[in-house]
Structure to design on (887 residues):
């Protein structure tokens, strides 16, 4: 796996005549966990969607493992924001997880027992094996997030793109997700995670991308996640707590 | 009349009585019942996906959108000979025009900020208006021959002929097969379009095939039961099935069965009693099943949800007391 | 239709047809704005089909085809249709479109059965309900002072005044309840009652238009002119006036086109109501083409900001 899991160069996105992302460049080495951090409206979700061709881009190039996305779909898993689907839909948790296998199963072929077994295993890995048969609208926010993560896990991808997996989840779910992320890294996999809580960036990630319409800074956490860079990314919307500023821990307000 | 009013609530016994009276030996009745059941099965099956795609009323829009196609088909048919009222030609015209309606709805959604409901309404009324305009012209060249062209396709609530039954079978069976074969893909697109797109599923094509199946069932159903009643057959069984299950596959099964049962009971009732038009009767049977499901449905029915709330409350009280 | 086959514009005929068309179009567009904004566009279509049993029952009870009982019957069933739809959605957790579909098709089927069963006594033709005959407007007149005024024009004028008074009089409340029914309730506005009133007017407008211009035209006027105006403005006030303007223009141009355009291809005149609906569609697709251009002119609205939030 010598190629870079993700390399973005000169990526720009305009939406309704307004530039949302301007000339984004970054590269991601294999086996890293990267947090994407920035104020609301910085274009974090847009960045992930643009990488996956979900929205049109105005310029730039995105390469996954050295190839265009459509050649390596099976190596990439995407976890959208929880609100992006209708949780009132008539499926059980295990069915949702099995959806991650539809590509492998192929057109016209039904979902078989062994696929469901795989889905059960992924749910167990997320610590919610007992919820497999539960209708999805009876799951809590954290449980829904775990189902989404389990669906990504069954895909057996090498790169995971996650849109705010920690948003509005309970503490135990947050711990479970962090466990999984570390497990993925140990197995040589790579993950890009949009993240809001600046306090935990240093604990969870080894790389960080500070974004605000453009790349403010990117690189290893120790060098990049500094008070100056945070100021540059958040501008007036950030209060750096004096007492903690040496360690670069800051708190976003007003967003 | 009395035995008929009983037939709706007491489906089982009265139905047998009705069958016995007819002996089902009557060839016409058999054809009508057979066609109604097939139509109910197919529209119940595809209806599930219009409901889950949150396009329950697309049948409304598309059935109206077919009128201009009928006008054009007649125009072509009578220009190149005396094929004006050729059923295949008219159905093809209706199908093409319905599909154009699908594309227009998808286009309006994509290239303007108009909401889905308004997009459906626009296609419905403007296409139908265009159809009326074309029929106004067609009737001038067709003369008496073109008279009643619209009722040829719309609202012929009286009887299903052998020819109609043939077309219903020719469309319903493939439509049901499509539902079974593509259930996995259709469910994914309905539930999580983004995941489907990331996985490389051609959403546009899946959508067009799905709506194409709806249009095809609509086209053959229209002349059997009429516009509004055909819309009902797409919506009501699926909405009723939703009360009983939490799985798409079971929902398809239940919905198709409700559709088929409504078709059978409705057509039998109207075969026995002349003043019950078959289309409307089929719909009223389906609506009764819907009403029953609304209250008694084991998963989302009002009674089941009430019980759920009660037990949750008892549990909460118990915890407080403990 | 033969009346107009010559293609010549006769004020005594075409004048009244256009007036009836404008009255119907503007009445429908006025209330239609709020249907479109509430994302209940198809409720207009649903109600206009669902009133069938109301008409049938009104006829069976009174035994006459007088307008008043018909309006009452239609209004009652119209409100019933809207309330049932809302109840199925809120209490039955049925999908919004589906609950509408279930209710209006069932009511329509009920109406059909009623009409067929009472066929010997009722002279209600479901086909006539759907197609209408605006061309016959000038034939049925009422003597008012020194003038012979078509009955349809009188009825539709009343409806227009009613709708206009409602929309202008409750403009502030309608704006609030359309955008934020929850807030409206906490402020003490009864948004539900206002909604019911709106439904009554939708039903009355639909019924008044049926016999004169046909179901399809009124459905088009409920939805298309407001949707067109929505593409061009973000202010509710401007939207109401613009949609009324489009509706009236579509009525005039529609009738003109119905008697003129077929002549270019060697045909006699065609259906006026259909052509009016087609005209509203032309306006919509024109506006759809213009809207991106307008957006590039740099007017961002709160709506668009919400859309573009990542």
């Amino acid at each position: 796996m010598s190629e870079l899991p993700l390399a973005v160069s000169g990526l720009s996105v305009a939406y309704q005549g307004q530039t949302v992302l301007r000339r984004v460049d970054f590269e991601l080495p294999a086996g890293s966990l990267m947090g994407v951090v920035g104020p609301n409206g910085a274009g974090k979700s847009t960045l992930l969607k643009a990488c996956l061709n979900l929205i049109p881009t105005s310029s730039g190039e995105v390469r996954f493992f050295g190839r265009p996305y459509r050649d390596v779909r099976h190596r990439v898993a995407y976890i959208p924001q929880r609100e992006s689907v209708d949780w009132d839909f008539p499926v059980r948790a295990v069915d949702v997880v099995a959806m991650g296998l539809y590509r492998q199963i192929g057109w016209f072929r039904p979902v078989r027992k062994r696929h469901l077994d795989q889905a059960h295993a992924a749910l167990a890995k997320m610590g919610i094996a007992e919820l497999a048969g539960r209708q999805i609208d009876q799951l809590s926010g954290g449980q829904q997030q775990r189902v989404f993560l389990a669906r990504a896990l069954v895909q057996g991808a090498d790169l995971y793109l996650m849109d705010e997996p920690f948003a509005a989840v309970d503490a135990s779910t947050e711990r479970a997700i962090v466990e999984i992320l570390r497990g993925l890294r140990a197995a040589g996999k790579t993950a890009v995670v949009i993240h809001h809580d600046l306090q935990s960036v240093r604990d969870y990630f080894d790389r960080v991308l500070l974004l605000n319409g453009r790349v403010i800074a990117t690189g290893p956490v120790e060098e990049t996640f500094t008070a100056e860079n945070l100021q540059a990314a958040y501008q007036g919307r950030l209060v750096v707590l004096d007492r903690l500023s040496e360690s670069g821990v800051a708190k976003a307000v007003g967003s | 009349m009395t035995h008929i009013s009983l037939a709706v609530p007491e489906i089982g016994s009265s139905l047998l009585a009705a069958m016995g009276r007819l002996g089902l030996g009557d060839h016409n009745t058999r054809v009508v019942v057979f066609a109604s059941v097939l139509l109910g099965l197919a529209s119940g099956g595809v209806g599930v996906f219009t409901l889950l795609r949150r396009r329950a009323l697309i049948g409304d829009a598309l059935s109206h959108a077919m009128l201009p196609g009928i006008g054009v088909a007649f125009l072509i048919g009578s220009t190149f000979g005396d094929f004006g009222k050729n059923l295949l030609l008219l159905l093809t015209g209706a199908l093409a025009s319905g599909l154009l309606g699908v594309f227009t709805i998808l286009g309006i959604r994509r290239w303007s900020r108009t909401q889905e409901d308004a997009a459906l309404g626009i296609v419905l009324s403007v296409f139908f208006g265009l159809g009326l305009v074309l029929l106004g012209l067609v009737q001038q060249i067709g003369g008496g021959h073109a008279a009643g062209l619209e009722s040829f396709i719309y609202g012929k609530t009286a009887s299903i002929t052998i020819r109609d039954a043939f077309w219903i079978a020719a469309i319903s069976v493939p439509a049901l097969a499509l539902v079974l074969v593509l259930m996995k893909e259709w469910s994914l697109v309905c539930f999580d379009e983004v995941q489907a797109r990331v996985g490389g599923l051609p959403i546009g094509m899946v959508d067009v095939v799905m709506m194409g199946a709806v249009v095809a069932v609509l086209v053959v159903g229209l002349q059997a039961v009429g516009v509004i009643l055909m819309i009902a057959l797409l919506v009501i069984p699926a909405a009723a099935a939703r009360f009983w299950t939490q799985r798409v596959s079971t929902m398809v099964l239940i919905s198709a069965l409700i559709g088929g049962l409504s078709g059978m009971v409705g057509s039998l009732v109207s075969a026995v009693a002349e003043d019950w038009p078959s289309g409307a009767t089929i719909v009223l049977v389906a609506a009764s099943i819907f009403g029953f499901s609304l209250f008694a449905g084991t998963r989302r029915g009002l009674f089941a949800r009430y019980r759920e709330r009660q037990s949750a409350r008892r549990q909460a009280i118990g915890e407080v007391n403990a | 239709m033969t009346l107009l086959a010559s293609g010549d514009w006769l004020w005594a005929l075409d004048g009244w047809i256009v007036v009836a068309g404008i009255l119907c179009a503007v009445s429908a567009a006025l209330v239609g704005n709020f249907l479109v904004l509430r994302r209940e566009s198809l409720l207009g279509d649903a109600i206009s089909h669902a009133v069938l049993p109301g008409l049938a029952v009104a006829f069976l009870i009174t035994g006459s085809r007088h307008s008043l009982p018909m309006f009452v019957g239609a209004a009652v069933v119209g409100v019933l249709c809207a309330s049932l739809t809302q109840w199925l959605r809120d209490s039955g957790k049925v999908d919004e479109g589906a609950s509408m579909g279930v209710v209006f098709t069932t009511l329509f089927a009920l109406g059909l059965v009623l009409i067929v069963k009472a066929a010997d006594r009722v002279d209600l033709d479901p086909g006539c309900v759907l197609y209408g005959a605006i061309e016959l407007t000038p034939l049925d007149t009422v003597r008012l002072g020194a003038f012979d005024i078509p009955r349809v024009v009188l009825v539709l004028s009343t409806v227009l005044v009613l709708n206009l008074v409602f929309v202008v009089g409750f403009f502030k409340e309608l704006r609030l309840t359309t955008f934020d029914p929850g807030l409206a309730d906490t402020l003490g506005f009864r948004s539900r009652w206002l909604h019911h009133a709106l439904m009554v007017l939708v039903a009355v407008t639909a019924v008044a238009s049926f016999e004169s211009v046909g179901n399809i035209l009124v459905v088009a006027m409920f939805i298309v002119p407001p949707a067109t105006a929505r593409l061009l403005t973000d202010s509710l006030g401007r939207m109401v006036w613009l949609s009324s303007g489009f509706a009236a223009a579509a009525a005039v141009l529609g009738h003109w086109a119905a008697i003129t355009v077929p002549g270019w291809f060697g045909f006699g005149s065609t259906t006026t109501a259909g052509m009016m609906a087609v005209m509203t569609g032309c306006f919509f697709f024109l506006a759809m083409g213009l809207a991106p251009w307008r957006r590039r002119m740099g007017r961002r609205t709160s709506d668009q900001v919400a859309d573009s939030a990542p």
Notes: Chain C has one domain: 2-141+161-289. The longest helix of chain C spans residues 236-264. Residues 2-141+161-289 of chain C form a domain with the ABC transporter involved in vitamin B12 uptake, BtuC fold (CATH 1.10.3470.10). Strands of chain C lie at 141-144, 147-150.
